[in-house]
Hints:
Blueprint: H1 2-14, H2 22-88, H3 90-97, H4 126-138, E1 142-149, E2 154-155, E3 159-161, H5 171-178, E4 184-187, E5 194-196, E6 205-213, E7 220-229, H6 230-238, E8 247-251, E9 257-259, H7 271-274, E10 279-286, E11 289-298, E12 303-310, H8 311-362, H9 377-436, H10 440-457, E13 463-465, H11 466-484, E14 488-494, E15 502-504, H12 509-520, E16 527-536, E17 539-546, H13 553-568, H14 593-606, E18 611-617, E19 621-629, H15 633-642
Amino acid sequence: MRNRYGQRSWEIRRFSLNNLPIRYKLIVHFMLISILPSIGLGVLTNWTVDRIIERQITSNTLQLIGKVNRSLETYVENLQNMTFFISFNPDVLQFLENNNEAEPVLSAPSVQTPPRTTTPTDTDHYEIRKFLQGFTTLYSEVAGILIVNSRGEYISNEMYARTSENLTQEAWYQEAVRNKGIFKIIGHPRGRNVTTHVNYKDSEVVSAVRAILDPETQQVKGVVLIDLKLRVIAETAQDVRLGKTGYLTVVDGNGELIYSPPAPYINRIPLDRLGQDASGTYAERVGGRDLQFIYRHSPFTNWTTVGVFSMAESATEMREIRFYVVSFVFIVCLLGMTASFYLAHTISRPIGQLASFMQKAQSGDLTIRHWSDRTDEIGLLGRRFNAMLQQIHRLLSLTELQERQKREAELRSLQAHIKPHFLYNTLDTIHWMARRNGSEDIAEMAESLSKLFRIGLSKGNDIIPLNDEIEHVRSYLHIQHVRYQSKLDYSLHIAPDIRGVYVLKLILQPIVENAIYHGIKERRGPGRVVIEAAEDSGMLVITIRDDGKGIPRDQLARLQKELQAAGTTDGREKGAEPTAAGVSPAGEGGQGYGMLNVQARIALTFGPKYGLTIQSEEGRGTVVTVTHPIIREEQTRLGRMES
């Protein structure tokens, strides 16, 4: 199982993009750069054109539906105007008022009186028929006009009652009474007791009614019934073509079809799909066909004209545009692939040639050279390759020379190391001889000097324990105390929690040396040197304080400037390396030379954040503060491993 997993991981690494030859990488990148934007542009163009065409189709269809609605509103408005003209005609009012003293039919629905039909010989009603005939002659869309009074008597040229039943009991009459004189379109008639001489079917006319009221009593005098020919609605709707098979249909406020063409896609349009907006659109799948519905409502007629067409027809233009887009993307991709292969070949071929030269050089043939007159990056690599081979040849010759010099230097180093070892071994011998002879002061002096040399060597380590550094400076102070006797006193205060840290070696002795030679030695009377070490803000802070002569202000400013330069610029190169014993060559010479050396070493090792600062007051003493990073034993081990 583990072997299969390892093999699979190796195969994945093998076929990763980074392991492919640069030729294939370039081909892939060029194809991505050329093909992906083309495909994205094609998809975006197709989506944008689809949205634009859809909006244009919806906008154009709504405009056509708006024109149809205005035409239908004109027809209905004519019918409404006819009812007003009829209600104001004196003869019609006379026909209605002659029977006004009778109780209205609605107040006593059980009382039914046989209607009295008029005949052409009734001269009283001749003028009314002639008046009504003028409307039907002027407006050919009117199928018939019928005037009924409150007793059920009626007058009409084209319409008549099928039976002798009272017309006031008809549903259309009751609807007109309920609307109290407001014009009302009631749609296709159903089962009414009225017909026309032409014998129109109920589905071929649309009826509208209006009650005529007494202006004083608001009682119903009668009702005007007008039939509108469906033909004019059909002609208006059929003049609009929506694609090849799309059509317009008209729906009333109850969801009943006012007009629908033969063999429609859908026989009934639900009102809940039309919504509450004046216009809108929605899509629905009916009979396995995806249909688009665009509608606009007419507040005047309370009709909604709906455009119905198949979405497949609206996609014809889209298919044509999509064909052009796909053709464009295909051509661009074809050109992109061709350009990708050509560019990849022109770039990878000289790289492959240069790689073959490098392989020959790797096999040991350093005389090979890449000759090319190219000025691009490949030519630059070839020239750098030639220069590298020449440099390698020079370095090989130099390495042979350095090996010989190294062997000679090792021999000299071995001889040089014999001297300090011999010196502090001799000092140890003097120490024990002095003790045996009872010369304790000479023994202590020799022991301190021996420690000074031994810690100064530190087996070649640059970073030593803080305890060793303190012991080194204590030995130095002891030697100086023996030399100056009562003129020099010293004390060391080391915090217990930092005794295990490590420091750069030989950083305290040059500072103490400056304090003795330029401070304590030149003052009158005894002097004191105090060394304190503690941890502060995550750093090791060592303070060397003396009560010596102090430093004049101008010399202090110059020394502070030199310390800053030694820690941040090439001025650190001015510092001198300590001797094996740790005593600065400037011991009794120029002031501050050893301090500059310490400053440069700390800044070079740990950065400009660490180093020395000096404060002094003439006549009162000097304070030197050493800022050093906290280094634990684990860090020193890691540093040795990295070295």
